[in-house]
């Protein structure tokens, strides 16, 4: 009788476990850091859990709506500042990147946060970036904003002098490397950005978080490894010949 009870309890426990999906689809914004660094990181994290992934480029203002409506399973990475209207979505720690909102300016123009408060100025920004500015500056935001849905082309629009000012997002690591293009820029504020899941996948949060942490730690260790001198093999070969 006791054996039957134990077997029944085990059956209940295993029956309560939800299997991982075989495939998931994530949205992303066209940005070099997302494409070159974060999509590979997310893909590798899910692959380690046995989940295949695919990626759909979306304008940044549509990503969260599509996820909330169940059309997509999540987003590769999104600023926490822009998630206030989507409290149902699942934020997966740790942050994948520190996002830096910057004001791009044509060269030789004044370039500082005062532009954001000047109603006589015009800048170009995505809807999502405008939302971020609203969240950060509130009523101090006075600048006129022309909306487009492609973050990737905003530096080009400023460089080609089609707009004097624009809002763009760099990673903190990008800024640490110095000059980014033929424009000036002023840092406005920084936020953390996280991987996002639809609520139906909340049960995956801890597993995905653990996988992401492991891969980030591994990548960091690779970066910190000293480079092996290229002439080591040649030196060793010469030493060997010298002994004969």
Write the topology of this structure.
Blueprint: H1 2-16, E1 23-28, H2 32-48, E2 52-57, H3 60-68, E3 74-79, E4 90-105, E5 122-126, H4 127-137, E6 144-148, H5 154-159, E7 165-171, H6 172-176, E8 184-197, H7 205-224, H8 232-242
Parallel strand pairs: 1-2, 1-3, 5-6, 5-7
Antiparallel strand pairs: 3-8, 4-7, 4-8
Helix pairs in contact: 2-7
> What is the end-to-end distance?
80 Å
CATH architecture of the largest domain: 3-Layer(aba) Sandwich
Could you tell me the strand content as a percent range? 25-35%
Number of domains: 2
Largest sheet, in brief, is: 8 strands, mixed
Which ranges are low-confidence, i.e. pLDDT below 50, for 5 or more consecutive residues? 1-16, 232-244
CA-atom Rg in angstroms? 24 Å
**In the CATH scheme, what's the topology name of the largest domain?**
D-Maltodextrin-Binding Protein, domain 2
Order of strands in the sheet with the most strands?
A: 2-1-3-8-4-7-5-6
Q: How many helical elements?
A: 8
Name the assembly state: single chain
Helix-strand string: HEHEHEEEHEHEHEHH
Shape: globular
Looking at CATH, the homologous superfamily of the largest domain is: Periplasmic binding protein-like II
What is the SS-derived class? alpha/beta
Mean pLDDT: 87
Give the CATH level 1 class of the largest domain.
Alpha Beta
Total beta strands: 8
- Proportion in helices: 25-40%
């Amino acid at each position: 009788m006791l054996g039957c009870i134990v077997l029944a309890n085990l059956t209940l426990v295993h029956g309560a476990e939800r299997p991982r999906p075989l495939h998931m689809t994530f949205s992303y914004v066209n940005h070099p850091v997302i494409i070159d660094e974060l999509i590979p990181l997310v893909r590798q994290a899910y692959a380690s859990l046995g989940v295949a992934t695919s990626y759909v480029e979306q304008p940044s203002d549509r990503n969260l709506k599509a996820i909330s409506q169940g059309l997509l399973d999540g987003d590769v990475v999104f600023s926490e500042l822009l998630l206030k209207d989507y409290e149902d979505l699942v934020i997966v720690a740790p942050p994948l990147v520190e996002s830096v909102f910057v004001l791009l300016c044509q060269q030789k123009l004044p370039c500082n946060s005062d532009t954001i408060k000047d109603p006589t100025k015009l800048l170009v920004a995505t809807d999502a970036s405008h939302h971020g500015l609203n969240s950060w500056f509130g009523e101090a935001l006075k600048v006129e904003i022309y909306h487009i849905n492609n973050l990737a082309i905003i530096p080009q629009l400023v460089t080609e002098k089609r707009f004097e000012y624009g809002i763009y997002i760099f990673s903190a690591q990008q800024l640490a490397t110095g000059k980014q293009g033929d424009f000036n820029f002023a840092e406005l504020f920084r936020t953390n950005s996280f991987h996002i899941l639809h609520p139906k996948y909340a049960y995956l949060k801890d597993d995905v978080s653990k996988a992401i942490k492991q891969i980030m730690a591994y990548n960091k260790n690779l970066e910190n490894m000293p480079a092996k001198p290229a002439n080591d093999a040649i030196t060793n070969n010469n030493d060997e010949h010298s002994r004969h």
